[in-house]
């Protein structure tokens, strides 16, 4: 039951127009008088308008009352704070007000700008609801206005990577929250097992939102011309871009040529997994956060040895991501001139740094083993340390191990470059507004904080709260060094182009040439540079 007699059920009225306050005569707050219109609760007319708790528990707009107070400021103006429930679409009708919308409670707060003075001629502030009428519907004999009913919509999601494909994963991590927030939307995941993006397009499969990492976006979203500039929607729905980690936002803007083709979602972890049993077996001290590449190399030397017929390896790494996330922020391919730079001293230094781990006496992995580095660590348990560079492993992978993690090795004081996953709005989507609002919701701190607590994703947000709560609800990380996961002091992103990933892949081929074919570093890098140049020329001649 409503706490106010005039608001009993059956006597609710639609608040089409609210007269908030009227100031007349002079600027003294004592001369302000309040007016009761369309269900706004009044009071003793002789008092100054200091209204207090008036929002009911129902959250129904028809049951909403005004909360108002004034305070004197040095300039003689009056600051007025108003809290109401109101349709989001009506906000733009309000002038001279600062608007703050809480996305969870839908409670909107309006603060009158200090520059507005209460003068002798008085001031009338009117908040107009969608109808614009000042007469309550009930007084006109009309039925109360109903909320706009949205048509049921199915949105299709596609992840360029395969990490959403597990049975029930998408529904659990995304679907439930989307349907709760947007009851008219049914989210559907298109599994990668049904084919790559070009196959989806050819089959006529609708796609609305595409998840793609910085390393895969060019050869998927951009290659198929599916990108769409979301800047107008950012402005329309007042998305606060300052919530995103600045470097991830910089990356997508640079990739978009100054436009904005996507919102950042999460960023890949970079940690070193280590097998505590192997460290204990060989009497080697565990690695610590802040370890440098040189310190890591020294550990690897101690752990690379042969026991009986078993060869053990100190450290293995995913080479592609090592080059893509290089801590020197190298410009492999200039986005403007398409000049390829893979033979300079900095690239040589980058190559030497990783090659030395595979050249430790006794290492000598054959090509098959280098192509299955995860198997060496997880199944065979012959690698003491492993870093995927981009991502975290799940419980089923880690279950057989006595493991822990430390931070990615630093180079010149920097961690790796960010490696974000972005949410792209497909240019061919028929429901761009709905799709964008879902993207906006999935990138909010409220949604992503819960995912961070569960260690599901590392949000690409600037919030200082994320590292504090990361993994606190995740049983997998209980007793583990979870503080190593959130990225710190990331290197500046390398300039991105459609050929940046190709350059990284060619550097991996060069590394294999050095290790397996006996090539010297200069020859291997020269071959890599020529391969990228040929790819660029081939594209130009298409």
Automatic annotation (TrEMBL):
Query: What SUPFAM superfamilies does this protein map onto?
Result: Periplasmic binding protein-like II (SSF53850)
Which BP terms from GO are recorded? transmembrane transport
Ranges where the record places region Disordered = 28-51
Keywords of this protein's UniProt record, alphabetized?
A: Signal, Transport
Family matches, as PROSITE patterns: SBP_BACTERIAL_1
Show the InterPro entries listed in the entry: Bact_solute-bd_prot1, SBP, SBP_1_CS
Per the UniProt record, one Pfam family is: SBP_bac_1
Q: Which family does it belong to?
A: Belongs to the bacterial solute-binding protein 1 family.
What protein name applies here?
Extracellular solute-binding protein
